[in-house]
Write the structure tokens for this entry.
Amino acid sequence: MTLKPFPTDWQRALVLMAHPDDPEYGTSAAVAEWIAQGKDVRYVLATRGEAGIEGLPPEESGPLREAEQRAACDRVGVEVLEFLGHPDGRLTESLDLRHDLAAAIRRHRPDGVITLNHGDTWGPGTWNSEDHRALGRSVLNAVGDAANEWIFPDLEGPRHQVKWTAILSMNPTHAQPVSEESVDKAILSLAAHSRYLQALDSRPVEEQAAEQVRRATARDVGGPAVSFELYGL
């Protein structure tokens, strides 16, 4: 299937994902590319990732993972990072989550929103976590909520209409070509999650990061690219 070019007529994007490290599995290569072009990309994460490191209690893991995410942002040029404080591993498709996501959209007023795969799997034999599924589906609803003055009347600021929503999906429709420099920045951004990656695999974190990012950007459109499924276009 031939993928369409990712839109270029926008200035600000908001990355809405569940955990620290979620933006780094491919999306950050596109983020690095966009920021190099002068675009404004911001991150809002639903949780602090406090339940994500085996053997490390949440009260220690949460601050550590926040710090790793800030370092990851620095490596691709993201200056705005927020955490909504929902419980890691227990995200649900709730009105509370939709409310907080819609509030973030109104607060940052992006042209487009980027989020995670909300399907059941990442492919054959690879189950997608409930946090990812709940967050992705809630983002799609929150995009509508942010544009509606009546659903959450307590939200501050005027309603805001997002032009497009991009999903890091198993069924992509659009591709964003990225330079080798952007790929390298993305590898460094994933490697910034060093304590998290050390708990997953005994290999050096740089090796893990390079493998993951190069796999995610291997879409053949004449060079490395990040692919998304776009809604709203």
Q: What stands out?
A: The chain is about 40% helix and 15% strand. Helices lie at 27-36, 58-76, 95-108, 130-146, 180-191, 194-200, 205-216. The longest strand covers residues 225-231.
